[in-house]
Write a structure and sequence with these properties.
Layout lengths: L12 H23 L3 H12 L4 H8 L3 H19 L12
Length: 96
């Protein structure tokens, strides 16, 4: 009989601890990547995805048009993806 402790959802405490560590590492990496964004991009990302505000609400908060907020969001998400996607580092300088 297997003596490992399993929780009701079938995940062992060790697996749960590893998941928590990995989530913490991902959060730290994301926070570091956000710091590299422009101040306006940081505001948009935080208001949109942390605070859950709409594009219109963010526009009013930062004094920009909705179109400007959408552009800032798009550019910020693209920058975060470039900075966080390890597969992207191999393709830099190859016409991208």
């Amino acid at each position: 009989m297997d003596e490992r402790v399993m929780q009701a959802d079938g995940i062992s405490p060790a697996e749960e601890a590893m998941d928590a560590v990995e989530a913490g590492e991902r959060t730290a990496m994301l926070q570091e990547a956000i710091v590299d964004l422009s101040e306006a991009q940081q505001q948009v990302i935080i208001y949109r995805f942390v605070e859950g505000l709409s594009t219109g609400e963010v526009a009013r908060m930062i004094g920009k048009s909705e179109g400007a907020v959408k552009s800032l969001q798009h550019r910020a998400l693209a920058a975060l993806q470039r900075n966080l996607d390890p597969r992207d580092t191999d393709q830099e300088g190859m016409g991208r």
